[in-house]
Amino acid sequence: MGGELEVNGKGELKVPFLRSSESVAVSLSPPIHKGDDKVKTTKFQIRGIKCASSSTSIESALRKLNGVKNAMVSALEGQAVVRFMPDLITAKTIKETVEATGFQVGEFRNQDIAVCRLRIKGMACTNCSESSERALSMVDGVKKAVVGLALEEAKVHFDPNVTNTDRIIEAVKDAGFGADLISSGNDVNKVHLQLEGIKSAKDLISILSSLESLEGVNHVEMDMEHHKVSVSYDSDITGPRSLINRIHEAGGSSNFYNASVYIPPRPRETERQHEIQTHRIQFLWSCLCSVPVFIFSMVLPMLRPYGNWLDYKVHHMLTVGMLIRWVLCTPVQFIVGQRFYVGSYHALRRRSANMDVLVALGTNAAYFYSIYVVIKALTSDTFEGQDFFETSAMLISFILLGKYLEVVAKGKTSDALSKLADLAPDIAHLLTLDGDGNVVSEMEISTQLLQKNDIIKILPGGKVPADGIVINGRSHVNESMVTGEAMPVTKSPGDKVIGGTVNENGCLLVKATHVGADTALSQIVQIVEAAQLSRAPVQKLADQISKYFVPTIVLAAFITWLGWFITGEAGIYPKHWIPKAMDAFELALQFGISVLVVACPCALGLATPTAVMVATGKGASQGVLIKGGNALEKAHKVKTVVFDKTGTLTIGKPAVVGAMLFSKFSVEEFCDVTIAAEANSEHPIAKAVLEHAQKIRQKYGSRTVHIKEVKDFEVHPGSGVGGKVGERRVFVGNKRLMRSFNVSIGPEVDNYISDAEQLAHTCVLVAIDQKVAGAFSVTDPVKPEAERVIAYLQSMGISSIMVTGDNWATATAVAKQVGIQKVFAETDPLGKADKIKDLQMEGMTVAMVGDGINDSPALVAADVGMAIGAGTDIAIEAADIVLIKNTLEDVITAIHLSKKTMSRIRLNYVWALGYNVLGVPVAAGILFPFTGVRLPPWLAGACMAASSISVVCSSLLLQYYKKPLNLRINK
């Protein structure tokens, strides 16, 4: 138990609270700044070197390259070390040069992986996201590309030595989509500054060179026109205030430069509003023409004599109504509807088909047949035909209305994430302290100007601007907005606080440990964003259907038209079925167009990603971080949950629950020697014993405890400590320590030890002069909710197992206390992973819940790894789901949310597939012979739009998700 307890101590906040599971590690030397040059060093293996002359020839070839500063090749190790300037030469060229000399390059590790995020515009369905993902993957140097349809974003991992963001964006545009850069890998810590005092371009160049030479600055972007600069930096080395000071210094005595933080508008929110506005404007322009078309074609002809003027013949059989409808429909078809032509062109160029193709085919069929009718009417004295201009115009209007409502609804799927991002306050109160800790000055600054180790004052009712440690003051902090914990948490010196939480009553002084992108809040947002981009395996169904969906619908539409046309011309169905002013061809054409536009591939594509977006956002707001669709889907299949003991089922901090004297020694003397011995030990159990002994000493003696000096102090690993306190020989530890030093253990002491072990307590004996003077009963208390969680899991049909490195007696006692039937004790970290693999071999889907370094192999081995948020950073890295709040109730929340989400995804597929399965036959006229009911093309277009909206709204219902265990308690 001791070993496990050690890794769960408070420790220092030396690493970020959370890290994204999608981060990519690279072993590459950092750039070396030498004047204005940036030099990189790479090492790689070369096969086939047999002598020194071979290494010399390779060195000679490399040194001739422009941009290579130095090259050394070891014939003995078969390894090359090359220093080069990436601005002048790429690592790929170096590799090719070595291979050109006749040698093979083996392990070439100079793949510096960078990450960028792009906004992808113009995606309508799963085919679009697959096409853009395929286009990105084909770019030379791109290692991995993931495109999210609902989020309309792409995350690309690439080698910056081979390609860059401009080429990546160009590849997306070549595929027929719009693309904008949201962020690149060096945006992790980035500040935007507005420059003042600039008089010429020379001033800007001076500031640029000054910033680039500052240690810790990674990248500088200068906007010459608007006098703005964006700086990416390493927060461990420098910070925003240091950058502003550097700008001041760049002015020298002759020029006065100043800089202030400005916050650029959020690209996502700005673009979303722009997209909503664009769809709204397009719909309104479409209505401006299509509403009159509808009135002139369907309303006025029924209102005799008000509509008689529409039948007035302009020339031959061409009427005024036909001419007006043509004039009004044309701008809708070719100006407002241009987006469908563009989308169809790019889709067909990619050898795929999407919704745009269906809409373009349907509207063009209606429009150009109507043009044919107009030409025939213009040139004939006897021709009577019906135009479909209203079909084309109204179809486009309804589809644009649907897209507008869909964009509005999709914007709400990331509401939870937006609320999280808005939690951080804009202003912080920065304190300056003197050497004695007294406040020298206080000033309000932008939160973006905070740096590590700043002292921040947080007033009652104020938000915590950054992660940190309380150094002064006591208060209650409401963490519900980050962790989902409803009750305020008490904070006192030494406790951690999370940025974005609210200080309720007292005043706190906090030392900032993580600022900017390193804060827990920022990393939660990053993890959720990555999760929303990932695909759930269940989406493969939609992907497979989408490949054949549009071609199938086009074929079905053609067969529908052909079937109705041939049967009509052959007189197979009665002539009275054909509406007045129509013929068999026109009736068949309407049925064919309806089939084209009623089918909706978009609804299928949105069924999974919208549900995943809402669920991951909702989970994050309740303290459950789900790292992607894969984890979300697997969690609903879990039938066995494996729990670690220490720090997971138990609190993770030992506490003394009893003490006993076995000799003539007084309580004061017993406590004094215990305090003296344990004061020198760092073991968690020793600290618990020390704290309890001090309390007893204060109760029976003076308020101030004087710690006696210990001579000949020795630590006996795994057993305890020993030494001389005054003239007495003292040992404090377990039974093994006593036996190794021949300390006699009587029956009374032996019985006490046995009783303690049965209760899952560890017995710490204190021996004075070879006799056991007393004992402390120490335990790691079980979390209060553990028993209730195990019982609830059982009610869900999920079995619970404990796997721990602790001894059998303690493990069995804890398992009995919480209601777990199956226990594996005295298991090392790799053994835990093996136990999980054994369970998986039995056909079980296994979730592992742990918090320590020793749980990482098991977390990775499990189908779903759940890390307690208060655990170590390594455990959090290995997990699929992070329980930020450090409560076992959220194990149930994660599984239950997964079940609800998968149920919602299935319902979305029922909406999408069921709609298409029912809609296409109805549009094809299957009901017409029996009921006389047919689906006009414009109404079919409205149905098509409604299907996408219904799927998105169905996913939005997940925002009302409630935790199951909380509901049960409230009842």
From TrEMBL:
Transmembrane segments: 283-303, 315-336, 357-375, 387-405, 548-567, 587-608, 909-932, 938-961
Gene Ontology CC: one annotated term: membrane
A molecular-function term among this protein's GO annotations: ATP binding
EC number: 7.2.2.8
This protein's UniProt keywords: ATP-binding, Copper, Copper transport, Ion transport, Membrane, Metal-binding, Nucleotide-binding, Repeat, Translocase, Transmembrane, Transmembrane helix, Transport
Keyword set includes Protein transport: no
Protein name in UniProt: P-type Cu(+) transporter
